[in-house]
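Technical note accompanying the year-one report. For the benefit of new consortium partners, we illustrate the data format agreed upon in the data management plan: each record pairs a sequence with a structure-token string. No post-processing was applied to the example shown here.
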Amino acid sequence: MVKLTEIYSGPTEYDPKKAKNNKAWLLREVYVNPSFVALVKENMELTIKSKAGELISGLNKNTGFTKILINLPTSGINQISVVGAPQGVLEKLDE
């Protein structure tokens, strides 16, 4: 099992000043079995949001994000996004 940091969307709050909903982004540790990883690719949506400063306060704007598809035998495919560029995530999964 490999420990990674997942980024996921939390509660949404309405901002009346901006007249739009603001999504909270949160982090948590996850453990991934590399044997079940089906796909690893850059999460461009989160990378763009990070560069615009729309994610987590204090997070480096140059942080990369990776989308991982996990093929679980009992429940099908799950998708998670983790902190780190795809190359770094692949290196961790190959350790």
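Partners are asked to follow this layout when depositing records. The longest strand covers residues 2-15.
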